[in-house]
């Protein structure tokens, strides 16, 4: 493929022609409701990670999410500035939270990130994400992160493709100690069950 053809080729992040609009699950959290962590040791949202992002996501209208993340000193790349990988994590976590509104368990297959402005330590990153289309197991979504408020300038943005998986994905691939602990935690099991009964 020459460079001209590559320019015209549909990206892996472009929904196929048979993709459909996302449907919010009838039992999804109401708009404005905080989602809470999906796993206490998650680096993105868990309270059990001292240097984690502690990102808090809130259900929006349709299949959309808002979230906030405050850049801490532990998140630096250059002096006083957020590490790009940490910012990508914040986008990934926000995008992943969207799957709660579909009541689908899904993992990130592809994540494309634009870093538009540097983000200093101490900044509150205001994130917004939405699912744009669904094609079978493939969930297409976009996110932006703004500084200075929910309507402030865009600092980062992302496009993503999540792939629906069964809970076995985690049980088969996770380290046995953590899987055992998660399966012994009634709250964790309750959350997973809510997703498993997805019609
Ligand atoms: C008790 C236990 C507790 C559990 C807690 C649960 C809740 C926690 C929730 C936490 C969430 C935490 C979130 C995290 O932290 S996610 C962490 C980061 N992500 C991962 O670790 C995922 C690793 N990857 C995989 O496991 C597999 O590759 C997956 C599962 C994604 C697909 O492998 P699988 O064999 O299943 O499917 P397939 O290969 O037939 O692909 C299917 C379709 O997708 C298309 N495709 C795939 N990849 C890409 C790509 N990169 N670009 C473009 N397209 C891609 C592919 O072409 C095909 O399309 P089509 O041919 O059908 O058109």
Give structural notes.
This protein is an alpha+beta fold. Helix content is 25%, strand content 27%. The relative contact order is 0.17. Strand 4 and strand 5 form a beta hairpin. It is built from five helices and six strands, in the order αββαββββααα. A six-stranded antiparallel beta sheet has the order 1-2-4-5-6-3, with helices on one face. The protein has one domain: Hotdog Thioesterase (Thiol Ester Dehydrase, Chain A, Roll). The model has no long low-confidence stretch (mean pLDDT 92). Bound molecules: tetradecanoyl-COA. Tetradecanoyl-COA (MYA) binds next to strand 3, strand 6, helix 3, helix 4 and helix 5. It holds the Pfam family 4HBT. Its EC number is 3.1.2.2. InterPro entries: HotDog_dom_sf (IPR029069), THEM4/THEM5_acyl-CoA_thioest (IPR052365), Thioestr_dom (IPR006683). One of its GO terms (cellular component) is membrane. It catalyses: tetradecanoyl-CoA + H2O = tetradecanoate + CoA + H(+); (5Z,8Z,11Z,14Z)-eicosatetraenoyl-CoA + H2O = (5Z,8Z,11Z,14Z)-eicosatetraenoate + CoA + H(+); (9Z)-octadecenoyl-CoA + H2O = (9Z)-octadecenoate + CoA + H(+); decanoyl-CoA + H2O = decanoate + CoA + H(+).
């Amino acid at each position: 493929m020459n460079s001209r053809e590559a320019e015209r080729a549909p990206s892996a992040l472009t929904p196929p022609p048979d993709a459909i609009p996302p449907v919010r699950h009838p039992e999804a959290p109401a708009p404005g409701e905080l989602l809470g962590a999906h796993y206490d040791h998650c680096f993105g949202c868990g309270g059990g990670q001292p240097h984690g992002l502690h990102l808090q996501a809130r259900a929006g209208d349709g299949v959309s999410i808002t979230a906030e993340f405050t850049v801490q000193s532990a998140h630096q790349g250059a002096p006083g500035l957020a590490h790009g990988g940490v910012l990508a994590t914040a986008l990934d976590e926000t995008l992943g939270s969207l799957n709660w509104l579909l009541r689908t368990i899904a993992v990130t297959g592809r994540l494309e990130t634009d870093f538009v402005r540097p983000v200093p330590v101490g900044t509150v990153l205001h994130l917004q994400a939405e699912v744009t289309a669904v094609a079978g197991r493939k969930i297409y979504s976009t996110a932006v992160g703004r500084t200075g408020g929910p309507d402030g300038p865009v600092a980062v943005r992302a496009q993503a493709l999540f792939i629906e998986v069964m809970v076995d994905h985690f049980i088969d691939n996770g380290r046995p100690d953590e899987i055992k602990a998660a399966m012994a935690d009634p709250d964790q099991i309750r959350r997973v069950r809510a997703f498993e009964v997805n019609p």
